[in-house]
């Protein structure tokens, strides 16, 4: 699936899932409105009950008044006392429950009338208690109390009508909201079901495509592995043939070269000085070229052997390899007056023959590319958390640091032909180091000297040979 297809799929999924979410949000809002309507209905019911209780207070006041006048007993005044004590609280409760100003005004009228009727009842009872029953009956005959009760009934009926209208409106609103909520619920459910079915089918299609893609990848991998195996086998065969050819060619070239070298040296011995100067120079060219060709062939043979499986590795003291290299280069060391200095060196599991060649090549280069003063070579080793770093520092001619990588190439030389060499030594050294899982690099300054660093993994360290004569921190040989 391309990036564009993925973007389109994400957008499509976002739209599809946003629709059910929108319907769910609308359903939630409608439910909130339903809860609000239910709350209003409960308030109206509570207000209706409170208005009935307020009217009942007026009736209680009237009952207490008449019961006292008929019996002249204080116990019949309890309804009147209760109405008097709870009147203000009941009026305030009705006003608090009023949903709008119109009902609040009507309720204030009802409250005033009930307060008036309770006051009239208290006044008649007071008259009966202080002026006698006749005076109280005379006050009742005026009809004011009955008129007040009629006004209370009329006003309460008006408030009831208003409350019923409000209740009917809220009930109708609730029914309408329920229908809307049900519609949103059904629409959201249907859309969610459709999205789920689509998503299910899309997942099935994706899984089938993924399985097909995996099968295709597996077939491609199998085909690629088959081709790689065939190509590897072909390359291995070609490499073996090339190595065999190089080995045979290099080996077979040795015999004619030895013949050329022998007869060239014989010509130089017998006829040097007997012929003219040009002949002597030509013979010298032939001898020099044949020796160089011999060195090149020997280097090729060493490189070919290096590509083959090395000897079985075993723990080797690098100090012992340094001793072997010094012994092999003893003539060159004495001729140049060289000094080989070294510090403690570890014992590592390496190929003895190949690493002896590494030491010999590096020390030989330091002696070969020297300055007029006697060469000095310093060999040190230090260990960090993951590698052994072995350094070869000299005071030779040095080279431009820009060519630090070039010197490890095959047949690469930075100096003139006046210094003997094939340009293969450092290339062989690098291959040996890389075969042991390490790396080699150089740092140099022209006219000052060079330092070659070899990094080898600590996994090559199996044991460390401790010898008394190597316990000193520094030793010098000349």
> What proportion of the residues is helical, as a percent range?
55-70%
* Beta-strand content: 5-15%
Instruction: Give the beta-strand count.
Output: 8
Broad structural category:
alpha+beta
What's the overall geometry?
rod-shaped
- Number of DSSP helices? 10
Distance between the termini: 72 Å
CATH class of the largest domain: Mainly Alpha
- Could you give a short account of the major beta sheet? 6 strands, mixed
Contiguous uncertain segments of 5+ residues: 463-478
The helix/strand series, from N terminus to C terminus, equals: HHHHHHEHHEEHEEHEEE
Structure in words:
The chain is α+β, with helices and mostly antiparallel strands and 478 residues long. It has two domains: 3-206, Four Helix Bundle (Hemerythrin (Met), subunit A); 312-477, Histidine kinase-like ATPase, C-terminal domain (Heat Shock Protein 90). Helices cover 70% and strands 10% of the residues. It has ten helices and eight strands. A six-stranded mixed beta sheet has the order 6-7-5-4-2-8, with helices on one face. Helix 1 (3-71) runs parallel beside helix 3, helix 2 (78-97) runs antiparallel to helix 3 (101-131) and helix 7 packs across helix 9 (352-368). It is rod-shaped. The protein starts with a helix and ends with a strand. The relative contact order is 0.06. The model is unreliable at 463-478 (pLDDT under 50).
């Amino acid at each position: 699936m391309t990036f564009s297809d993925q973007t389109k799929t994400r957008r499509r999924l976002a739209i599809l899932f946003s629709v059910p979410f929108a319907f769910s949000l609308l359903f939630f809002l409608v439910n909130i409105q339903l809860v609000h309507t239910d709350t209003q209905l409960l308030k109206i019911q509570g207000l209706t009950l409170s208005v009935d209780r307020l009217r009942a207070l007026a009736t209680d006041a009237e009952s207490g008044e008449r019961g006292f006048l008929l019996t002249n007993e204080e116990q019949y005044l309890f309804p009147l006392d209760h109405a008097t004590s709870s009147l203000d609280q009941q009026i305030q409760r009705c006003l608090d429950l009023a949903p709008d100003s119109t009902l609040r005004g009507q309720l204030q009228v009802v409250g005033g009338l009930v307060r008036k009727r309770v006051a009239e009842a208290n006044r008649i009872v007071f008259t009966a208690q202080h002026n006698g029953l006749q005076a109280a009956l005379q006050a009742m005959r005026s009809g004011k109390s009955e008129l007040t009760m009629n006004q209370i009934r009329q006003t309460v009926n008006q408030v009831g009508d208003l409350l019923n209208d409000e209740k009917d409106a809220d009930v109708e609103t609730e029914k309408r909201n329920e229908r809307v909520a049900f519609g949103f619920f059904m629409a959201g459910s249907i859309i969610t079901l459709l999205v789920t079915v689509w998503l299910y089918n899309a997942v099935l299609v994706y899984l089938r495509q993924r399985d097909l893609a995996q099968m295709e990848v597996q077939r491609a991998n199998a085909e690629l592995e088959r081709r790689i195996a065939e190509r590897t086998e072909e390359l291995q065969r070609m490499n073996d043939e090339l190595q065999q050819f190089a080995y045979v060619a290099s080996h077979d070239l040795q015999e004619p070269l030895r013949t050329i070298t022998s007869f060239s040296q014989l010509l130089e011995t017998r006829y040097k000085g007997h012929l003219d100067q040009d002949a002597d120079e030509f013979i010298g060219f032939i001898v020099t070229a044949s020796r160089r060709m011999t060195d090149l062939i020997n280097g090729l043979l060493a490189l070919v052997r290096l590509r083959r499986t090395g000897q079985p590795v075993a723990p080797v003291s690098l100090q012992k390899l340094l001793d072997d290299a010094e012994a092999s280069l003893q003539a060159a060391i004495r001729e140049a007056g060289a000094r080989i200095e070294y510090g403690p060196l570890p014992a590592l599991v390496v190929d003895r023959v190949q690493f002896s060649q590494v030491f010999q090549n590096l020390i030989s280069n330091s002696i070969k590319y020297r300055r007029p003063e006697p060469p000095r070579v310093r060999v040190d080793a230090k260990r960090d958390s993951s590698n052994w770093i072995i350094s070869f520092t000299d005071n030779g001619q040095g080279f431009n640091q820009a060519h630090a990588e070039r010197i490890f190439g095959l047949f690469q030389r930075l100096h003139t032909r006046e210094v003997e060499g094939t340009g293969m030594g450092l290339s062989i050294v690098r291959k040996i180091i890389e075969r042991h899982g390490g790396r080699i690099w150089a740092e140099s300054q022209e006219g000052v000297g060079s330092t070659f660093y070899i990094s080898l993994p600590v996994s090559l360290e199996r044991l460390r040979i401790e010898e008394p004569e190597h316990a000193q921190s520094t030793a010098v040989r000349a």
